[in-house]
Design brief:
The protein is of the alpha+beta class. The protein has helices spanning 2-6, 12-22; strands spanning 29-34, 37-46, 52-55, 61-64, 68-71. The chain has a five-stranded antiparallel β-sheet with strand order 4-3-2-1-5, with no helix packed on it. The mean pLDDT is 84.
């Protein structure tokens, strides 16, 4: 963790690449709670700012800067 946090000084893109590699969420079916509003979809990617991009059932991508995530059984 110290190496990862030290990387913040050298650039967020490098830290973000490391987080993406270690993610247990990307590619998984999940429910994200943004406040009291649940949104279900596939965690597709983290954008350049570190926000989660969620692919919804209708095919659209929605971006979230914060929320509580619950993985769904049987997801990818």
């Amino acid at each position: 963790l110290g190496d990862l946090l030290g990387g913040i000084d050298s650039g967020f893109a490098e830290v973000l690449a490391c987080v993406k590699k270690r993610s247990n969420v990307l590619g998984k079916h999940l429910v994200l709670y943004a406040g009291d509003h649940p949104v279900e979809g596939i965690a597709e990617e983290l954008d350049a700012e570190g926000c989660l991009r969620l692919r919804l059932a209708d095919g659209t991508l929605q971006t979230f800067a914060a929320g509580e995530v619950t993985l769904r059984p049987g997801g990818r």
